[in-house]
């Protein structure tokens, strides 16, 4: 019998967890800044969810050109390879350990065995997970034919398999609408898109898909039950009132062989919680400062693991910022600041990040409103900042640049609000 | 006949109405800029879309290559185009940006390598 192999130990300045756009942009930037970096992803390919998002609509800000998801990913991957960044695919991170500020360990499995990597900083860019049927209260038979949108997308656009013929989609956000188009284009019948809220969740250009393919949209409705023998056969839909309570007697059944759940994403932060990273209940991601450093020193976060982004451009921007943070952290043995200004949510602001600003750097604030409004002003009264916006919608993230000088005018906190102009 | 659209040219999302009589555009209402007006008229006269799908590929790392049309295609021709694309098969290597087929003068471009 062969002796038990020891777990090989690798050593880097920074380990990036996740090879999506956030992680790739972070690894590229870290390398450009002269850091010794390792990128890990559990998939067999780089790009995160981009290789399966084959529609156009990516990169208008970042590459000044409209690309599809795979094209955006391959540009980043090309740069990564040109720079000689070390990366491993099929490398699944199991655990993160935080021994001290400059001693972190990442344990990962791969086809060649288990490894541990020592690093001074970690950039966590593990993306988001999708909400499942059971999380949105759908009951019924445990049958084949129930997918999340991302699962259905992977089947169709990576493996070339159509997941069903008659499909009901739950959720009218951009992901649900884009999937409706893909199914319809490939010859499946999309029997309905069912949306809980009284308005569609996606951008107008994606809502147009419904008209293009004559797909019925049920607003203020929800799917509550699924029935079938072996495979989905029908789903039960019920109307809801303005308080989202079910309207008695309003239920009806739709025959379908497939149910696709597109009910939102949640930052994937389990491993961060385990090492004590503080989580913001509003974003679902970590509480961070203006270098995207979490409450555990030397652990940075970017992309959908930080907050759910609707534009890949912002995701890549966050990756670069986290890399700059990691560089500063490693060079100075920590990120210090004289005082932190706390960012607070005011009227009609549902979520906002970063949470703490140093006033040492210009920053981008990313925020979402709670409800749609027209003719509004985004205000930060403490520093006299005002921005006119014709429309705001929960589905569209707002990005606001603040200069270091402006932040320095704030006392210990800064409240951001969206109010009628 | 009145067609109603939410404009998608910019995030303003104007509600635009296009009135058509005997196949001719009579009036356009509700737009705030000329780009929005042009878009709405185009949507009525000849709507076009970029089309994407995947094509099976032999010998690649993944079983399919994703493709898009190099330019928007008239909406009513999309089913026909999809039937054409459904018959294609490719062999690795395929590079991003490579023209893998052509249909009625419209180039089909690979958006993923294999
Ligand atoms: C259907 C759909 C349509 C979209 N359309 C658009 C659009 O038109 N325009 C646009 O700009 N944006 C769009 N987006 C949004 C954009 O794609 C995302 O915001 C972006 O890809 C998020 O990037 P990320 O790097 O944070 O995460 P991801 O791309 O999810 O990457 C995270 C990576 O981390 C890896 N990972 C996770 N856990 C581990 C672990 N334990 N060990 C190792 N690796 C791990 C995963 O394998 C994954 O590769 C769309 C998204 C979806 C789902």
TrEMBL record, chain B:
Coiled-coil boundaries: none
Highest taxon listed in the record's lineage: Archaea
4Fe-4S Mo/W bis-MGD-type domain segment(s): 6-32
A Pfam family annotated for this UniProt entry: DUF1667
InterPro entries referenced in this protein's UniProt entry, alphabetically: CPE0013-like_sf, DUF1667, Mopterin_OxRdtase_4Fe-4S_dom
Keywords: Iron, Iron-sulfur, Metal-binding
Gene3D superfamilies tied to this protein: CPE0013-like
Gene Ontology molecular function, alphabetical: iron-sulfur cluster binding; metal ion binding; oxidoreductase activity
Name this polypeptide is given: Molybdopterin oxidoreductase
Taxonomic source organism: Thermococcus peptonophilus
